[in-house]
Design goal:
- The model is unreliable at 226-239 and 329-361 (pLDDT under 50).
- Strands 10-9-8-11-13-12 form a 6-stranded mixed β-sheet, sandwiched between helices. Strands 1-2-3-5-4 form a 5-stranded mixed β-barrel.
- It has 10 helices and 13 strands.
- 37% of the residues are buried.
- It has 3 domains: 3-90, Nucleic acid-binding proteins (OB fold (Dihydrolipoamide Acetyltransferase, E2P), Beta Barrel); 94-255, Rossmann fold, CATH 3.40.50.300; 275-327, Probable gtpase engc, domain 3 (Ribonucleotide Reductase Protein R1, domain 1).
- It has helices at residues 10-21, 128-141, 158-168, 185-192, 209-217, 268-274, 276-282, 299-306, 311-327, 334-338, and strands at residues 25-32, 37-42, 45-51, 71-76, 82-88, 94-98, 106-111, 115-121, 144-150, 174-176, 198-202, 243-246, 252-255.
- The protein starts with 9 loop residues before the first helix and ends in a 23-residue tail after the last helix.
Length: 361
């Protein structure tokens, strides 16, 4: 394996040049462990990296710490399968959400991703509104989006579901798959699982993200999977950490824990990019600041009345705009958050993770 197999290219090489002059080595984060530890892939293989004391002088907020998919600068420890992590290279893309809790903190789910697979199960857990929320976050991330409707073997009318999704989320590729029967996997692989490309699978618990990745790896036991509850098709959090794996086609895939609720972060551009049809219709509204509620001469409401635009799509757009307005005033400046004592120790007392090769102890 070479770093090029993990997505290393000229863009990252140019950003790494100052670190190379300091005698550091490039590496890609392949697994998040506990606190300040992560597994990274260097030219010689996989090692355990630790954010050293000097790193804390530059990392002022949680989002500046390494996330899965990041390219970082490390110094290998002689004679040990370990390294000290010194810096995170600028991210090309990042899929983020608001971290759980009362603080307004950005949590990076995956970095330097080319394609985000929005996975939804075709069972009782199917939720088009949730797909729209994930699409907004994907548009904000800068990556391309693909909708993956998994568990096709459990759906009686796949055509109707696809038409509903294509109407509510126009312009986004939709792939129907089944990790159980392998339906649709060949077409998805040919379109997106390409050498050197990085994909991240996101979605709620129980939609089959890990099962899909296992199918792409041709190994049903590569990543842990679990059953879902029969009454509501909800799954348990079997995947507890983010991990990047290399597939036989040369594509890199990031598995992520299921998200019961996606708290959006910094979504202004993402909303506009996820709803280009509403943005185009709004140009014909009588008022430039039309809220598409009760204003006269609203071209968007007229499109809903004529059937050109689904009412559910407008309702979701307005809900996200309201959510954006509520969250914007609460966003903290990086300096204000960094001045709060103890934020770096939020994970004290949590159960440590174990990696397939190394323990973080």
């Amino acid at each position: 394996m070479t770093l090029a197999d993990y997505g290393w290219n000229e863009t990252f090489a140019r950003a790494f040049a100052p670190h190379a002059a300091a005698g550091l080595e490039p590496a890609r984060v392949v697994c998040e462990l506990r606190r300040n530890f992560c597994a990274v892939q260097v030219a010689s293989g996989e090692v355990l990296a630790e954010c050293g004391g000097g790193f804390f002088h530059h990392a002022r907020t949680p989002d500046q710490f390494p996330a899965v998919g990041d390219w970082v600068a490390v110094r290998l420890r002689p004679g040990e399968p370990r390294a000290d992590l010194h810096a995170v290279l600028p991210r090309r893309t990042k899929f983020s959400r608001r971290a759980a809790g009362s603080e307004e903190i950005e949590q990076i789910v995956a970095a330097n991703v080319d394609t985000v697979g929005l996975v939804s199960g075709l069972d009782r857990n199917f939720n088009p509104k949730r797909i729209q929320r994930f699409l907004v976050a994907t548009r904000e991330s800068g990556a391309e989006a693909v909708i993956i409707l998994n568990k096709a073997d459990l759906c009686a009318d796949i055509g109707a579901v696809c038409r509903e999704i294509e109407r509510l989320v126009p312009g986004v590729p939709v792939h129907v798959t089944s990790a159980e029967t392998r339906k649709g996997l060949k077409a998805f692989t040919a379109a997106f699982a390409l050498p050197g490309r990085t994909l991240a699978f996101v979605g709620s618990s129980g939609v089959g993200k890990s099962s899909l990745i296992n199918a792409l790896l041709h190994d049903d036991e590569a990543l842990p999977t679990g059953e879902v509850r029969e009454k509501d098709s909800k799954g348990r959090h079997i995947t507890t950490r983010r991990e990047l794996v290399l597939t036989p086609t040369g594509a890199l895939v990031i598995d992520t824990p299921g998200m019961r609720e996606l708290q959006l972060w910094g979504i202004e551009e993402g909303i506009e990019e996820a709803f280009p049809d509403i943005r185009a219709l709004a140009l014909r509204c009588r008022f430039t600041n039309c809220g598409h509620a009760s204003e006269p001469g609203c071209a968007v409401r007229a499109a809903v009345a004529s059937g050109e635009l689904p009412a559910l799509r407008l309702a979701q757009y307005q809900k996200l705009q309201a959510e954006k307005s509520l969250s914007a005033p609460r966003l903290r400046k990086p300096g204000a958050l960094a001045s709060k004592p103890g934020w770096r120790n939020k994970t004290e007392g949590q159960q440590p993770f174990r990696h397939r090769l190394h323990d973080a102890d």
